[in-house]
TrEMBL record:
<dbReference type="GO" id="GO:0005886">
    <property type="term" value="C:plasma membrane"/>
</dbReference>
<keyword id="KW-0029">Amino-acid transport</keyword>
<keyword id="KW-1003">Cell membrane</keyword>
<dbReference type="GO" id="GO:0006865">
    <property type="term" value="P:amino acid transport"/>
</dbReference>
<feature type="transmembrane region" description="Helical">
    <location>
        <begin position="101"/>
        <end position="121"/>
    </location>
</feature>
<feature type="transmembrane region" description="Helical">
    <location>
        <begin position="195"/>
        <end position="216"/>
    </location>
</feature>
<feature type="transmembrane region" description="Helical">
    <location>
        <begin position="41"/>
        <end position="61"/>
    </location>
</feature>
<feature type="transmembrane region" description="Helical">
    <location>
        <begin position="263"/>
        <end position="284"/>
    </location>
</feature>
<comment type="similarity">
    <text>Belongs to the binding-protein-dependent transport system permease family. LivHM subfamily.</text>
</comment>
<dbReference type="Pfam" id="PF02653">
    <property type="entry name" value="BPD_transp_2"/>
</dbReference>
<feature type="transmembrane region" description="Helical">
    <location>
        <begin position="228"/>
        <end position="256"/>
    </location>
</feature>
<dbReference type="InterPro" id="IPR052157">
    <property type="entry name" value="BCAA_transport_permease"/>
</dbReference>
<feature type="transmembrane region" description="Helical">
    <location>
        <begin position="148"/>
        <end position="174"/>
    </location>
</feature>
<keyword id="KW-0812">Transmembrane</keyword>
<keyword id="KW-1133">Transmembrane helix</keyword>
<feature type="transmembrane region" description="Helical">
    <location>
        <begin position="6"/>
        <end position="29"/>
    </location>
</feature>
<keyword id="KW-0813">Transport</keyword>
């Protein structure tokens, strides 16, 4: 029973990270039809922004305080990068999907090479607050505290994005612009500016995921964003391209399947199980690739 509780909480915590990584990808595709392969670069930027910020702040500050500041900086960096990518690279290619893929793949490869050139390919150690490195006793199991933080942040982001899309004027414009851009523009609303905001939100969410994943792994590295991007794509496809609710459910399912398979089968089987889950979903529900409402 103790092991089961530990596995379940660990799986949900990992699923929370996968949701944070996939949420920006999901809203960008679902609302704008852009399959952003540079999403991993946004996550890498967030992790390095957090690492650099924590290292630049005074050592007399507590690790938790420096981490909070790093989160703010990472969100800002991710939003700015997302904004620039949309304005410079994506906006001229909205009706050219193949070119979008080529440009974003090229940006992803270039960003990894740039990070390796600046900071090297070796992982760099990240400081973690003492509380996050500790455990809490629940039902006889010692549960890592950082998993609770990941779950809390993921729930907050999920509810915030749903509220933004369904209960604000910006969300109304975004959804209307997706359905009929010409009509919205005829009403005098700048749809391009609204879509830029969506890309900035996606970049901020990705940067937050990258920073928290570096806390989970204890290191930052140029390849980290690409590794997390693979799971983000799997989660988005399983949950339905563009469905925020489906993405959240799929993220938890992927995290649980991965952890259960690693524990009850063998280490490394979890990754295979996730791929098999993806194949099963596509066989039974191929419409996942066609998208769904956010």
């Amino acid at each position: 029973m103790t092991d089961f509780v530990l596995i379940m909480v660990t799986g949900v915590g990992l699923g929370a990270l996968y949701f944070l990584a996939a949420s920006g990808l999901s809203i960008i595709y679902g609302l704008m039809g852009v399959l952003n392969f540079a999403h991993g670069a946004f996550m890498m930027a967030g992790s390095y922004a957090g690492w650099l910020t924590m290292g630049a702040l005074p050592g007399s500050w507590s690790v938790a305080t420096r981490l909070l500041v790093a989160v703010v900086v990472a969100l800002a960096v991710g939003a700015v990068i997302g904004l620039l990518v949309e304005v410079v690279l994506i906006r001229p290619l909205y009706r050219h999907h193949i070119q979008q893929v080529l440009v974003t793949v090229g940006l992803a490869l270039a960003s990894v090479a740039a990070a390796q050139g600046i900071w090297g390919a070796d992982p760099r150690t990240v400081e973690k607050p003492e509380w996050m490195g500790g455990t809490t006793l629940v039902l006889g199991a010692r549960l890592p505290n950082d998993r609770f933080l990941f779950i809390l942040v993921a729930v907050a982001v999920f509810l915030g994005l749903l509220a933004l899309l369904h209960y604000t004027r910006l969300g109304l414009i975004i959804r209307a612009g997706v359905e009929n851009r010409t009509m919205v523009e005829a009403l005098g609303i700048n749809v391009h500016r609204t879509f830029t905001v969506v890309f900035a939100l996606g970049g901020a969410a990705a940067a937050l995921a990258g920073l928290l994943y570096s806390q989970y792994a204890g290191t930052v590295s140029p390849a980290q964003g690409g590794s997390l991007l693979i799971y983000a794509f799997i989660v988005v496809v399983i949950g339905g391209m563009g469905s925020l609710v489906g993405t959240a459910v799929a993220a938890v399912a992927v995290g649980l399947v991965q952890q259960l398979a690693n524990f009850y089968a063998a280490s490394g089987v979890g990754d295979l199980s996730v791929v098999l889950l993806l194949a099963l979903v596509l066989l039974l529900r191929p419409t996942s690739l066609k998208g769904a409402p956010a």
